């Protein structure tokens, strides 16, 4: 056990402990799969036998093993109510294995795109989730060793029992390949910052752009990328130019309250600034969080806003729907230099 500042502990787990906890990575213990790796339920890794999420990463560069351990130690110091806690890791496998706190509920992606009960998808609830997620990202950006998430999306925002937002899945992103001949981009189509695609430089403003897409999802209840591969950001920008934003906004929230038009306009304007082509013209994540907090305070809670919250709970550990946890939804993808040009054309336009 390694001790770090603020009495926060980070544990290096042995191969035997991880294999025992996941029953040797038994397929029946899988609770999520995606482009960054596979997530398993883990047991018996702490004295209280509290379940954990064990993530087996993909795309590891062996030459960075020591640097990776140091970076994980830094991430373990992150202690925020709206960030899924990184508890430790194991470096005794071919790829890194990360251990996170287990959040029993599903994701924002599920709430927006799959949940049937509209009473737990009110404007008030959506704004609170957005504000708390923004605060979490702002916290990561403000650390002494600033941390950029790199894959902000609705599927990486987990919701607690009371719909408390927790940003997840930022550990595996530091395993990027350093092959001299191939530059690799990690991210999710529809959320990728066009500027990042052009120069492979991840910054805090890359997270801001991706979060802008999440705001659009909350406003429209449309996916970041349509079946026809049309990006929601492009559709939104076109609607703003034509003055047809109202046609894009989710009908569920348009009929909620007297000042809904003003709030929707404010969120849309904020999303537009987050999606500015130049990172310099995008607000900081702390500014985004501040503006969202003010908007939350201006919303009149919907009378049915607390009804049905328990319907997001997952009954049992390995139901058919558990793959929604962490990874189901838009998939994190890896892109080589050859794919860069075509992707840039798609998302920069």
Outline type: globular
What is the class of the largest domain in the CATH system? Mainly Alpha
Query: What proportion strand?
Result: 5-15%
Mean pLDDT: 80
How many E-type strands? 11
Query: What kind of sheet is the major sheet?
Result: 7 strands, mixed
Largest sheet, spatial ordering of strands: 1-2-6-7-5-4-3
Radius of gyration, whole Å: 20 Å
What is the name of the CATH topology of the largest domain? Transferase(Phosphotransferase), domain 1
Structural class: alpha+beta
| CATH architecture designation of the largest domain | Orthogonal Bundle
Write down the secondary-structure element order: EEHEEEHEEHHEEEHHHHHHHEH
Low-confidence residue ranges: 1-7, 175-183, 304-328, 344-349
User: How many domains make up the 3D coordinates?
Assistant: 2
Count of helices? 12
Helical coverage, percent range:
25-40%
Distance, first to last CA: 49 Å
Q: CATH-wise, what's the superfamily of the largest domain?
A: Transferase(Phosphotransferase) domain 1
